[in-house]
Write a structure and sequence with these properties.
Structural class: mainly alpha
Subcellular location: Cytoplasmic vesicle, Secretory vesicle, Synaptic vesicle membrane
Protein name: Synaptic vesicle 2-related protein
Pfam families: MFS_1, Sugar_tr
Largest sheet: 2 strands, antiparallel
Distance between the termini: 53 Å
Strand order of the largest sheet: 1-6
Main location: membrane
Radius of gyration: 25 Å
Keywords: Cytoplasmic vesicle, Membrane, Synapse, Transmembrane, Transmembrane helix, Transport
Shape: globular
Length: about 550
């Protein structure tokens, strides 16, 4: 075999290296590989750029999952995973959107007082809140795939069962059990993020949010056609279709390679990575798969180490505010559309007598169409966040979304017509959903693999606390004072904007952290004469 020069890209890691200091200083290395003489030359890559396909495999004796994911890149495997994760996300959105449609229907059909209507919404979030940490622990202890499968099958079973509820108490319990299952669906983001190369991660997680928007729009369209003819029971059954599809396709879903390595199951992780490389038509890195340090998995105290304490507390409030405001706006929308505008609600509430608290109005076709328009706002919300998040960074994107939502809430104080009301609700919902998306990008990036699912689970749990409280503001407090209701939502989001700015870590442009005991510098650099002078990544430190 003749001698020829190949270009070889090397991974610079923050751990120990096989190269000596003298080797690094000289920058000149000749490596004999299967009779081929290879000259290593420095190759400059832009920040976050993928490794070009023409580069040979890395020749370090060890590599990590992060290295393999970056080298294999984004391809057919990730597209399939995007659709599958999106189905779970779409199902979650549909189960949430049902709440704003089911509440006025049962209010009329079963003659429920407003506090029982609010409780029907809250019980779903009680279930979600109580289970979020549990699903996070299951995912960290037994695997992302296991936790996700169990939660989806649980939600599917009780979702279909709730369609047959004979009385209020039955549907209250069954919807609570549905909420318990939905609490595990956000773990799909954890699994998804761990298979994405750094350059594609933010955009892909945001694109998964498109499925959330599709789910909410599909639910309103479904209600528009199903509710007048077949009723709410059929709506509950048909809304479980994406969950059924996910359950059927779940056999294809692989376990997270990062989780397998953390569990000491290197062989399974390598098999998964080879499968991805084969599907993507990309080369696998050479050498032995390693982890920087074996750690205990998924302990609550890990979220409160000095390094992560402030991040955890601030993120909890940000997630609380996101869910409190998002679901509050969803519930307020139907109330505002039925009344016409804020001033109509104000004057209407003054004339309603106590004996009329059971008076109700079914949602009209016009209400469903306006609800559809405001729901469509989630699509531009995704696009705006997608454009902004890699330019401003995660923290500033969240702050911007909260501020614009607050301004729109304050503008609702003015007596405006139906068209202007729809426009303001459209803008407000676009940006609060954008803030939610930014939080979903930021949270898996900020925690190390050992506590990533638990961190996302606890944040999701705090979001459910906000969603649990919001029906009593949007549906019960609204009867007393519409202005106080809007002021609560506006004030909460302004505080969340401040909290976003005070987050100690910005995750823009850095890889997923394998361990809390090492830095995140997994960027790829060419080995050359300047290797020693390349600064180490400080993105793992609090700024």
């Amino acid at each position: 075999m003749g001698s020829r020069d190949l270009r070889v890209v090397k991974f610079r890691r923050t751990g120990e290296s096989a190269w000596s200091e003298d080797d690094l200083a000289s920058g000149e290395h000749d490596v004999q590989i299967e009779g081929v003489r290879v000259g290593l030359e420095a190759v400059e890559l832009d920040d976050g750029a993928a490794v070009p396909k023409e580069f040979a495999n890395p020749t370090d004796d060890t590599f990590m999952v992060e290295d393999a994911v970056e080298a294999i890149g984004f391809g057919r495997f990730q597209w399939k995973l995007s659709v599958l994760t999106g189905l779970a996300w779409m199902a979650d959105a549909m189960e949430m959107m049902i709440l704003s449609i089911l509440a006025p229907q049962l209010h009329c059909e079963w003659r429920l007082p407003s506090w029982q209507v609010a409780l029907l919404t809250s019980v779903v979030f009680i279930g979600m809140m109580s289970s979020s940490t549990l699903w996070g622990n299951i995912s960290d202890q037994y695997g992302r795939k296991t936790g996700l499968k169990i939660s989806v099958l649980w939600t599917l079973y009780y979702g279909v069962l709730s369609a047959f509820a004979p009385v209020y108490s039955w549907i209250l319990v069954l919807r609570g059990l549905v909420g318990f299952g939905i609490g595990g669906v956000p773990q799909s983001v954890t699994l998804y993020a761990e298979f994405l190369p750094m350059k594609a991660r933010a955009k892909c997680i945001l694109l998964i949010e498109v499925f959330w928007a599709i789910g909410t729009v599909f639910e309103v369209l479904l209600a528009l056609f199903v509710m007048p003819s077949l009723g709410w029971r059929w709506l509950l059954m048909l809304s479980a279709v994406p969950l059924l599809l996910f359950a059927v396709l779940c056999f294809w879903l692989p376990e997270s390679a990062r989780y397998d390595v953390l569990s000491g199951n290197q062989e399974k992780a390598i098999a998964t990575l080879k499968r991805i490389a084969m599907e993507n038509g990309a080369p696998m890195p050479l050498g032995k798969l390693v982890i920087s340090r074996q750690e205990d998995r998924g302990k609550m105290r890990d979220l409160f180490t000095p390094h992560f304490r402030w991040t955890t507390l601030l993120l909890w409030f940000i997630w609380f505010s996101n869910a409190f405001s998002y679901y509050g706006l969803v519930l307020l929308t139907t109330e505002l559309f039925q009344a016409g505008d804020v001033c109509s609600i104000s004057s209407r509430k003054k004339t309603v007598e106590a004996k009329c608290s059971l008076a109700c109005e079914y949602l009209s076709k016009e209400d469903y169409l306006d609800l559809l328009w405001t729901t469509l706002s989630e699509f531009p919300g995704v696009l705006v966040t997608l454009w902004v998040i890699d330019r401003l960074g995660r923290k500033k994107t969240m702050a911007l979304c909260f501020v614009i939502f607050s301004l729109c809430s304050l503008l609702l104080f003015i007596c405006i017509g139906r068209n202007m009301l729809t426009l303001l609700l459209f803008i407000a919902r676009a940006f609060i959903s954008g803030g939610f998306q930014a939080a979903y990008v930021y949270t898996p990036e900020v925690y190390p693999t050992a506590t990533r699912a638990l961190g996302l689970g606890t944040c999701s749990g705090m979001a459910r606390v906000g969603a649990l409280i919001t029906p009593f503001i949007a549906q019960v407090m609204l009867e007393s004072s519409v202005y106080l209701t809007l002021a609560v939502y506006s004030g909460c989001c302004l505080l969340a904007a401040v909290a976003s700015c005070f987050l100690p870590i910005e995750t823009k442009g850095r890889g997923l952290q394998e361990s809390s005991h090492r830095e995140w510098g997994q960027e790829m650099v060419g080995r050359g004469t300047n290797s020693k002078s390349v600064p180490r990544s400080n993105s793992g430190s609090q700024e």
